[in-house]
Amino acid sequence: MLLVGCASTPPVPEVKRYPPVVTYALSLQGAPYRWGKASPEEGFDCSGFVQHVYAQQGIRIPRTVSEMAVALPQVSKSDLHAGDLVLFNTVRNKASHVGLYIQDRKFIHAPSSRAGKVQISSLENQYWRQRFIGVRRPNGLEE
Q1: Do residues 72 and 85 touch, judged by C-beta distance below 8 A?
Q2: Which domains does the chain possess?
Q3: Each residue's pLDDT tens digit, 71-126
Q4: What residues are labeled active site?
Q5: Residue 22 CB: number of other CB atoms within 10 A?
């Protein structure tokens, strides 16, 4: 008996293309959290992480979250692009945490000494959703 059949080739998964700033940020996933630090060797706090990632692309941004909130152009949440900065109110009703938007409602950040490392989180997570306060887009960000 001879069986002949036709099999379809499974679809090739779409390769996600990110701006260089996001690709570099993703390469730092797992780096240690260290308050006040901004390097892969020493670790990162949240603002040090995004400042370092942008500096590697030749883009200067402020060092602190509150400075980023004031100095960088505001963007509507409905216009989020990969590489945008997402700001959160985690302390005393002010911009106190920042992450870098990836896509699909995900962002990468250095959350806290408790979490211990740079990681990816979801904007849909109740904690982050309740504390989200805005989006900033550094000048020079490739879209």
Answers
A1: yes
A2: 20-136 (3.90.1720.10)
A3: 999 999 999 999 999 999 999 889 999 999 999 999 999 998 787 899 999 999 99
A4: 46, 97, 109
A5: 25
